[in-house]
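seq:
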Amino acid sequence: MWGYPADAIALRDIANRHNVWLIEDGSHAHGASIDGHKVGTFGHIAAFSMNGPKPLSAGEGGFLITDDDELYHRALLHGHYNKRCRTEIPDTHPLHRYATTGMGLKFRIHPLAAAIALDQLSHLDEYLCGRTKIADYMATELNAMPGIRTQTPAINEQASWYGLIIHYQPQHADGVPVDLFCRALHAEGAREVDQPGSTCPLNQHRLFQDPRPLLPHYLGTLTYREGDFPVAERVHGLSVKPPVWHHDDDMPVVDDYLEAFGKITSNYQHLARKNL
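struct:
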């Protein structure tokens, strides 16, 4: 999740035991690994994204990894630009609800983007080393503050550090709700702090609740609803994500963000009174 490798070894064992495919979503996890094995090498097929702030960025596009020719030949090109969908499909239109997920498929890349990504690939280990150094520094500072705890990889895992996931704990923050916590951080200039939206439990997406307006010939019935996975939904609802930088020159910005977190976490009582 968000650049951390899942327990792919256990998932692979389950898939092999039941003779089902293991499909990896490596979207943010370029270079992440478990026991030295890279994300993308555990399953039958894996997909990666390269838009915007991903560790391996080419502006837009993505790629898949598979050693199965039949899977590759059956892969179809489906374009999906969720930001344009959100802005260009009127919010009164029935399909606007599906802007984030589209058809649920994404396999696009431009040759120029591929060339940019290929050049960056040779520097990926260097980028991850820098990100790890800064993420460790940020985690040490943030974990000393009340009400927040950072997600930390296991000793045998290497994260790609797409972002530093913070688990917000309102019970240790005078009950200040997470959205107010984030707004306060933005007011202090830490505007890249994000509450993950698109990366939510799948049952919260309309695509997996009622796909019929998008897929009119779909005859099945999906029963996913809000509340079906309360633990995952709670974890998502209380997750906060600042970026992770990877250059020594970025340290002044890192310290500015840490100062903003320090100021907010030292003034929970003031925020709580403001929220009354």
